[in-house]
Amino acid sequence: MPRYEVTIEKDACDGIFACLTRDPRFVEGEDGLATIDPSADPIYDCEGEVTDTAERVVAKFDDDRIDEAKQAAAACPTDAIIVEEVGK
Ligand code: SF4
Protein backbone atom coordinates (compact mmCIF):
# COMPACT_ATOMS: atom_id res chain seq x y z
CA MET A 1 0.00 0.00 0.00
CA PRO A 2 1.31 3.45 -0.76
CA ARG A 3 1.94 5.74 2.11
CA TYR A 4 1.02 9.30 1.36
CA GLU A 5 0.60 12.68 2.89
CA VAL A 6 -2.22 15.13 2.25
CA THR A 7 -1.59 18.79 3.08
CA ILE A 8 -4.11 21.63 3.10
CA GLU A 9 -2.48 25.06 3.08
CA LYS A 10 -4.91 27.19 5.06
CA ASP A 11 -3.69 30.44 3.53
CA ALA A 12 -4.82 29.16 0.17
CA CYS A 13 -8.08 27.56 1.31
CA ASP A 14 -11.17 29.63 0.58
CA GLY A 15 -13.76 27.38 2.17
CA ILE A 16 -15.35 26.52 -1.16
CA PHE A 17 -15.57 22.83 -0.19
CA ALA A 18 -15.28 21.29 -3.63
CA CYS A 19 -12.87 18.86 -1.94
CA LEU A 20 -15.59 17.40 0.31
CA THR A 21 -17.55 15.99 -2.61
CA ARG A 22 -14.50 14.15 -3.97
CA ASP A 23 -13.14 12.63 -0.78
CA PRO A 24 -15.35 12.34 2.33
CA ARG A 25 -12.32 12.52 4.60
CA PHE A 26 -12.28 16.27 3.96
CA VAL A 27 -14.61 18.11 6.34
CA GLU A 28 -15.35 21.67 7.40
CA GLY A 29 -13.28 22.64 10.43
CA GLU A 30 -14.27 24.97 13.25
CA ASP A 31 -12.47 27.82 11.50
CA GLY A 32 -14.68 27.47 8.41
CA LEU A 33 -11.81 26.06 6.36
CA ALA A 34 -11.23 22.52 5.21
CA THR A 35 -9.67 19.97 7.50
CA ILE A 36 -9.27 16.21 7.40
CA ASP A 37 -11.04 13.69 9.60
CA PRO A 38 -10.19 10.09 8.69
CA SER A 39 -13.19 8.79 10.64
CA ALA A 40 -15.65 11.08 8.81
CA ASP A 41 -15.89 8.63 5.92
CA PRO A 42 -19.23 6.84 6.29
CA ILE A 43 -18.29 3.91 4.06
CA TYR A 44 -14.68 3.02 4.73
CA ASP A 45 -13.07 2.52 8.07
CA CYS A 46 -10.12 4.78 7.55
CA GLU A 47 -7.17 5.46 9.78
CA GLY A 48 -4.70 8.29 9.55
CA GLU A 49 -2.65 10.70 11.60
CA VAL A 50 -3.77 14.31 11.34
CA THR A 51 -1.92 17.42 12.48
CA ASP A 52 -4.01 20.59 12.28
CA THR A 53 -2.21 23.87 12.98
CA ALA A 54 -2.98 27.51 12.19
CA GLU A 55 -0.99 27.26 8.96
CA ARG A 56 -1.85 23.86 7.57
CA VAL A 57 -3.41 20.47 7.98
CA VAL A 58 -1.15 17.46 7.35
CA ALA A 59 -2.66 13.97 7.23
CA LYS A 60 -0.70 10.75 6.77
CA PHE A 61 -2.39 7.70 5.33
CA ASP A 62 -1.32 4.16 4.64
CA ASP A 63 -4.09 2.83 2.39
CA ASP A 64 -5.13 2.56 -1.24
CA ARG A 65 -7.15 5.76 -1.42
CA ILE A 66 -4.56 8.19 -2.72
CA ASP A 67 -6.58 8.63 -5.93
CA GLU A 68 -9.51 10.06 -4.00
CA ALA A 69 -7.22 12.52 -2.26
CA LYS A 70 -5.75 13.44 -5.65
CA GLN A 71 -9.24 14.05 -7.02
CA ALA A 72 -9.96 16.36 -4.11
CA ALA A 73 -6.72 18.19 -4.83
CA ALA A 74 -7.60 18.49 -8.52
CA ALA A 75 -11.07 19.82 -7.65
CA CYS A 76 -9.74 22.54 -5.35
CA PRO A 77 -9.99 25.83 -7.26
CA THR A 78 -7.22 27.45 -5.24
CA ASP A 79 -4.74 24.53 -5.32
CA ALA A 80 -4.70 24.46 -1.53
CA ILE A 81 -4.37 20.65 -1.37
CA ILE A 82 -1.09 18.82 -1.96
CA VAL A 83 -0.94 15.03 -2.17
CA GLU A 84 2.47 13.38 -2.02
CA GLU A 85 3.60 9.79 -1.85
CA VAL A 86 6.13 9.43 0.93
CA GLY A 87 7.55 5.98 0.34
CA LYS A 88 6.32 2.48 -0.36
S1 SF4 B 1 -11.73 22.85 -2.23
FE1 SF4 B 1 -9.81 23.85 -1.67
S2 SF4 B 1 -10.40 25.93 -1.13
FE2 SF4 B 1 -12.23 24.66 -1.09
S3 SF4 B 1 -12.42 23.99 1.04
FE3 SF4 B 1 -11.33 22.39 -0.07
S4 SF4 B 1 -9.18 22.92 0.28
FE4 SF4 B 1 -10.34 24.73 0.75
From TrEMBL:
<dbReference type="Pfam" id="PF13459">
    <property type="entry name" value="Fer4_15"/>
</dbReference>
<protein>
    <recommendedName>
        <fullName>Ferredoxin</fullName>
    </recommendedName>
</protein>
